[in-house]
Design goal:
The structure holds 3 protein chains of 3 kinds.
Chain A lengths: L13 H21 L2 E3 L4 E3 L3 H6 L3 H31 L7 H9 L6 H11 L6 H8 L14 H26 L3 H9 L4 H12 L1 H17 L2 H6 L11 H10 L3 H28 L5
Helix pairs in contact in A: 1-13, 3-7, 3-10, 3-12, 4-7, 7-10, 10-13, 12-13
Chain B lengths: L2 H29 L3 H5 L11 H47 L4 H14 L4 H10 L6 H24 L4 H9 L4 H12 L1 H17 L2 H6 L8 H11 L4 H31 L6
Chain C lengths: L3 E10 L2 E11 L4 E5 L6 H9 L6 E6 L2 E2 L10 E4 L11 H5 L1 H5 L4 H14 L15 H13 L5 E5 L7 H18 L2 E6 L2 H7 L2 E6 L2 E6 L1 H6 L4 H6 L6 E3 L1 H6 L4 E4 L4 E4 L5 E10 L3 E7 L6 E6 L9 E6 L5 E3 L1
Parallel strand pairs in C: 3-8, 3-9, 6-7, 7-8
Antiparallel strand pairs in C: 1-2, 1-4, 4-5, 9-10, 11-12, 12-18, 13-17, 14-15, 14-17, 15-16
Helix pairs in contact in C: 4-5
Classes of the chains: A mainly alpha, B mainly alpha, C alpha+beta.
């Protein structure tokens, strides 16, 4: 058998590899080095772990770190639970089920900045539609985006509003793959609707759950657009997350600190997502 | 349909109407109001329809910046998506067809690309050294770099479903690698190509963060940047601000109307395989 | 000991009539097989008995009780699905005990019953495994175990052997028949395979187009088919059926004779024809004769017999084995 050049040449990978390496891999690797420097417009000076120490010393940086985790976990949990419930509702044969799927999914495709601006206006403490509507019911609505204790969570709500449609659609696909036989067998065994949900639907939609949780966690940890459009991390820094901290430090010219933030974000994602994926795959179902 | 299904559906529609549709309606109605009426921020029918006038005002703002923004966004999206499809398909093709030790490495990079947040400041440093910072070409290359992971994943799984026999028949007919790829495989990839184009176009068009970092300044604005920047200017002109939001929402809406199925298929890819 | 009685049971999907009036009695302890071609309604009928499908009209009684409107879990039935429906995330023990766990029985009781059931089916050593680690035959036994543990009045089987390969199928046929003998329970079994029907059933119900063609024991259906459809469906190779002039000559509308009930001779016989094709199966040979006036005549004969294509042969029916339909 004569050795021949493969019809699947390695060089096919080249264009993608060049772009990917230059503009993604190289900077990522470089970021480790730069995070250990005091870096600004003019100089680069090695300072060891100073940037990281600062991160865990300065209140506004620590807050950003904590907020990032809170934001990611709450949006992810909300999207997962609501996504599954909505998917079950929208596959149960109710009236206008197709139209409802479209309506819920559409916000996923809309500009995040547009959504952010719209909801900032709707959430205005006195003139915003939400508080005006609440006032007619006699409820005094809070400063959704002006109250430091509330701002981050208001953004969480908008994030879930925008993103639950994607979770729902993924779950709908997952539910479709569950054979009706499982439900029928449970029905013969006398299972109530609640039992069918928790003991058939939930376990058998695990692949979809893994996807939804992973995607929404990663997205949540990296979230920037919505927060920037709605509060810019304010009031003060009560709604700052790592991504907005990274940007603010960049704007202020503290490139080393900003890059350290990037590395911390990277590590945070790795520390949360990798063990989670491993844990999911350990309890594996083979369908 | 049982009565319960009908009633549940109606209740669900009412709830979704309030939660999901009203914000969009609010945007539309406010975009059609006069400046004075828009400031009231009420959910009311415009007493005077100024849709066209507002539209013109927004376009003319800051020397027709919106035109420039649309032009830039379109160029970036079209070129980036085209090259993404090409590069991504080529990688997906080789990775799927040619089992080798490199494949695990490539896979690792693909997954890394999905997870790792881009190191923005070092990237700016790289762009500057290449003279691509603040340029459209630089932005295009960035979008390609960031979009490759997802694209490769989609193509690889789709190519797995195309039988090798077709490649081999072409080889027997004397086709060279490039020919096999372009004349046999690529045409068969039409469905997933459409999906990739649609999903990536929307993502790149809606991207705010990357243009913010890599295209600062006035010369090379994109649609999302313009919308963000106009916030200050339109503080007292909510009608124009919302008209801007409307204009930014329309392209994805159009794509959604025509390609709903492909969008959903692309985004659920991998959801069920586990 | 329970019987199942169906009275004028009908089912329509919109304007499409799928089950067109079934009257049937299944005696206690019987192994009753519903058999018929695809789309004849046998699975639908089984599912209606189980309660998974509702009937459009008619009544159903299990053990004398009217169950027409009852939920599946209230009918005292258990079902073995074609796909087995074993929950992949549960162990064998958990799968078998699933129903009891839904009913919130105490853990000790569940463990006990699961153990007993597993021993009946030789699954005791597999209790901690997940379905993906089991063979096809083992999975089927787990599905049966899940049915047995319910102590049902009637067992329902929906084509349980279709997913198994041929050798496993014949082995499982024997196991199921032995299980029936051991438990003595009423079993209703759906299949499209007439071999399964013939070998396993006490009573066969042949269905076609939503109606019963014939009900009877296997040998009754074989020797005294009530309709041409039954004559053609039961037995392999298929019965030779003739209409038109040939039938008229025999004094009926449709005339039938089984390939195994025809004898061949080189010298004389009822029909004369030329050998068109021979299939040698080892023990038997199936001979296709071109007889003028007949579409074709299929004869079964000894595997050793010498036959040549084009050879002229005579075929004659064995007395008493002909069937005539008016």
């Amino acid at each position: 058998m004569v050795a021949r050049k493969s019809p699947y040449p390695y060089w096919f990978v080249l264009p993608a590899a060049v772009v990917f390496t230059t503009l993604f891999l190289a900077p990522t690797i470089a970021s480790f080095w730069f995070s250990l420097t005091r870096w600004d417009l003019f100089t680069t000076q090695f300072i060891g772990l100073e940037n990281y120490k600062q991160f865990f010393r300065e209140p506004f940086l620590i807050k950003g770190l904590i907020n990032t985790v809170i934001y990611a976990v709450t949006t992810s949990a909300a999207k997962t639970v609501l996504g599954l419930l909505l998917a079950v509702l929208l596959t149960s044969g109710i009236w206008a089920q197709g139209a409802l799927r479209t309506i819920i999914f559409f916000p996923v495709l809309v500009s995040t900045i547009g959504v952010g601006i719209t909801f900032s206006v709707l959430m205005h403490p006195t003139r915003g539609l939400i508080n005006v509507a609440l006032a007619t019911l006699g409820i005094h609505g809070p400063g959704w985006l002006t109250d430091p204790a509330l701002a981050l969570y208001s953004i969480v709500v908008v994030d879930v509003w925008k993103g639950v449609g994607l979770a729902t659609v993924i779950y709908i696909a997952g539910l479709a793959s569950i054979s009706p036989d499982y439900y029928e067998a449970a029905r013969i065994d006398g299972a109530t609707r609640r039992q069918m949900f928790f003991r058939v639907t939930v376990p058998l939609s695990k692949p979809a759950t893994v996807t939804v949780v992973t995607l929404s966690l990663i997205g949540g940890l990296r979230s920037f657009d919505l927060i920037w459009a709605m509060t810019k991390g304010g009031p003060g820094f009560s709604s700052d997350v790592l991504a907005s901290v990274i940007y603010k430090q960049y704007q202020a010219g503290f490139y080393g600190l900003s890059t350290a933030g990037n590395v911390i974000l990277f590590l945070l994602i790795g520390l949360i997502v990798l063990p989670l994926t491993a844990w999911f795959n350990r309890k594996e179902i083979d369908l | 349909m049982t009565r319960r299904q009908l009633y549940t559906g109606i209740v669900a529609m009412l709830a979704c109407g309030v939660i999901f549709v009203m914000p969009f309606l609010f945007v539309f109605l406010t975009a059609a109001k006069t400046r004075h009426e828009a400031q009231a921020l009420t959910f009311t029918w415009p007493s005077e329809w100024q849709l066209w006038q507002n539209f013109m005002d927004v376009i003319e703002a800051r020397n027709y910046m919106l035109f420039l923004a649309y032009f830039n966004s379109t160029v970036i999206t079209v070129v980036a998506v085209t090259l993404l499809v090409l590069f991504g398909a080529m990688v997906g093709y080789v990775v799927q067809r040619r089992p080798s030790r490199w494949n695990t490495l490539i896979y690792g990079f693909v997954l890394a690309g999905l997870m790792i947040p881009p190191a923005v400041v070092p990237t700016i440093w790289v762009l500057q050294s290449l003279g691509l910072f603040k340029t459209i070409s630089g932005m295009i290359l960035i979008q390609i770099a960031y979009g490759l992971s997802f694209t490769i994943l989609l193509f690889r799984s789709f190519i797995a479903a195309i039988p090798r026999d077709l490649d081999e028949a072409a080889i027997v007919d004397g086709a060279k690698p490039l020919q096999i790829f372009f004349r046999v495989v690529l045409p068969l990839l039409k469905p997933v190509t459409v999906t990739v184009i649609v999903v990536q176009s929307i993502a790149i068009f809606n991207d705010f963060t990357n243009p913010l970092y890599y295209l600062p300044g006035r010369e090379n604005v994109t649609v999302q940047l313009t919308l963000y920047n106009f916030q200050g200017q339109f503080q007292t002109q909510f009608n124009l601000l919302f008209m801007n939001i409307l204009l930014v929402t329309i392209p994805p809406l159009i794509v959604f109307i025509f390609f709903n199925r492909q969008i959903v298929a692309g985004m659920t890819a991998g959801a069920v395989k586990g | 000991m329970t019987s199942v009685v169906l009275q004028d049971v009908r089912k329509s999907f919109g304007s499409l009539d799928v089950i067109k009036g079934i009257d049937l009695t299944i005696e206690a302890g019987e192994f009753c097989v519903f058999v018929g071609p695809s789309g004849c309604g046998k699975s639908t009928l089984l599912r209606m008995i189980s309660g998974l499908e509702t009937s459009t009209s008619g009544k159903m009684f299990i053990d004398g009780k009217d169950v027409t409107a009852a939920e599946p879990s209230e009918r005292g039935i258990a079902m073995v699905f074609q796909s087995y429906a074993l929950y992949p995330h549960l162990t064998v023990a958990e799968n078998i005990g699933f129903g009891l766990s839904l009913a919130r029985r105490p853990k000790a009781e569940i463990a006990d019953k699961v153990k007993q059931t597993a021993e009946t089916l030789q699954l005791a050593h597999l209790l901690d495994r997940k379905p993906k680690a089991l063979s096809g035959g083992q999975r089927q036994r787990v599905a049966i175990g899940r049915a047995i543990i319910r102590n049902p009045k009637v067992f329902l089987f929906d084509e349980p052997l279709s997913n198994l390969d041929a050798s496993l199928r014949s082995q499982m046929r024997i196991e199921l028949t032995e299980l029936h003998a051991k438990l003595g329970a009423t079993m209703i079994y759906v299949t499209h395979d007439q071999v399964e029907a013939m070998t396993m059933a006490d009573k066969i119900v042949v269905l076609n187009g939503g109606k019963i063609e014939q009900v009877g024991s296997p040998m009754t259906l074989y020797n005294q088919p009530a309709t041409p459809f039954v004559a053609g469906f039961i037995g392999s190779p298929k019965t030779n059926l003739f209409e038109g002039e040939t039938a008229a000559q025999e004094g009926c509308r449709i005339y039938g004779i089984r390939p195994e009930h025809l004898t061949l001779s080189t010298t004389d016989g009822k029909w004369k024809g030329a050998v068109r094709y021979v299939e040698r199966l080892g023990a038997d040979a199936i001979v296709y004769l071109d007889v003028p006036g007949l579409p074709s005549l299929v004869v079964r004969t000894d595997g050793d017999r010498r036959l040549e294509i084009g050879e002229k042969l005579f075929a004659s029916p064995v007395a008493g084995k002909e069937v005539r339909f008016q």
